[in-house]
Amino acid sequence: MQIDGSVMQAEDKTPERRQQKRLVQAKTVAEARLLATPVMQYLNERGEGKMGKVQLY
Prior knowledge:
rod-shaped; 3 helices
């Protein structure tokens, strides 16, 4: 029995994988933009800018 190697190379071909990839990217961008806001910069300078549970809707 042979296993098709293209299945392993095409991990992002299914809609579920693409959606998961988009969610990870969206979370990364959202956290970066939130940390770049003046309020978060101020809190980070004071040592109070802890990231809690961030929910994306």
